[in-house]
Amino acid sequence: MKLFTKPKSDEDKLIEGCIAGKRDMQRLLYELYSKKMMVICLRYAPTSFEAEDIMQEGFVKVFNNLQNFKKDCPLEFWIRRIMINTALKLLRQKQLLTVSHETEEAVSVAAEATNLSDYSLDELLGMIQGLAPRYRMVFNLYAIEGYNHKEIGEMLGISEGTSKSQFSRARAILQNMLARQDKPYKENVISR
């Protein structure tokens, strides 16, 4: 009796090739994911140079740990998580991720609505990069990556309430940046 075996997917072949140290497969993996990962790194880093450092360090970790990938999620998600953790680690080391627990004054937010489609990706990234590191991290993790405030608190070593407060502050700052651009927008696009 012949047992049915599932044929290997292209992703499985790519992973096996990378683990075996095949340079062409490693280059292919890098080419497949580097642009998406650079966008992620840019959201966390204060400069493009630091984003490049984060991405380089992240891909080193990817290649060094690929044999540990359990295939319980898509490879892209696993690589994305490594990039985020690498960004948080490097920013912590540079002490750019210090957290302020003091109460901050409320920010007045423009009442009109905002349409983010009026802005280029570079403009939006620039606004996000303009946030203080602690606000940028919480905003990215919550609004873009989809983590909840409890998870963010654990990742950053802050309370859930602090995460909520910093997200609210980041959102208000971004809304003010958008209002100053004097372009119409929808307020609920930035909220989640």
Short description:
This protein is mainly alpha-helical.
Give structural notes.
The protein is globular. 26% of the residues are buried. The longest helix has 22 residues, at 23-44. It has 192 residues and is an all-alpha fold. It has 8 helices and no strands. α2 crosses α4 (75-93), α3 (48-65) crosses α4 (75-93) and α6 (133-144) crosses α8. The protein starts with 9 loop residues before the first helix and ends in a 12-residue tail after the last helix. It is 62% helix and 0% strand.
Q: How would you summarize the topology of this molecule?
A:
Layout (H helix, E strand, L loop, with lengths): L9 H10 L3 H22 L3 H18 L9 H19 L27 H9 L3 H12 L4 H8 L3 H21 L12
Q: Number of DSSP strands?
A: 0
Helix content: 55-70%
Give me the strand/helix succession.
Answer: HHHHHHHH
Question: If you compute it from the alpha carbons, what radius of gyration comes out, rounded to the nearest whole angstrom?
Answer: 20 Å
- Overall structural class, as computed from helix and strand content, comes to mainly alpha
Q: Given the C-alpha coordinates, what overall shape results?
A: globular
**Average pLDDT for all residues:** 80
Distance from N terminus to C terminus (CA atoms, Å) equals 54 Å
Largest sheet report: none
In terms of per-residue confidence, which ranges show pLDDT below 50 for 5 or more consecutive residues? 97-114, 183-189
Figure out the total of helices.
Answer: 8
- Beta-strand residue fraction: under 5%
